[in-house]
């Protein structure tokens, strides 16, 4: 049985600072490093969005909710 997988995508906005994005990613996404957080924050800023995590749908929904509750602008969960 193949379990549903999903992607968690953070969108660029004019509200959140790079520091806040990095802090939230480190707090919520397992294994997220400061360096990877800054890479993702830079990608979000320069391209408008970045996938910050992908994996089982249930975990994706949890991380999506937690990041959104920290004030990050989230794309709808994308199943893959």
Provide the spatial order of strands within the biggest beta sheet: 2-1-3
Q: For the CA atoms, what is the radius of gyration? A: 12 Å
Mean pLDDT: 97
Strand segment count? 3
Percent of residues in helices comes to 40-55%
Summarize the SSE layout with pairings:
Blueprint: E1 5-11, H1 18-28, H2 34-47, E2 49-56, H3 57-69, E3 78-79
Antiparallel strand pairs: 1-2, 1-3
Helix pairs in contact: 1-2
Short key terms for the protein model shown above:
alpha+beta, 48% helix
Fold and architecture overview:
This protein is α+β, with helices and mostly antiparallel strands and 80 residues long. The chain is built from 3 helices and 3 strands. The protein has helices at 18-28, 34-47, 57-69; strands at 5-11, 49-56, 78-79. The chain has a 3-stranded antiparallel β-sheet with strand order 2-1-3. The radius of gyration is 12 Å and the shape is globular. The two termini are 15 Å apart. The model has no long low-confidence stretch (mean pLDDT 97).
Quick recap:
By secondary structure, the protein is an alpha+beta fold. Helices cover 48% and strands 21% of the residues.
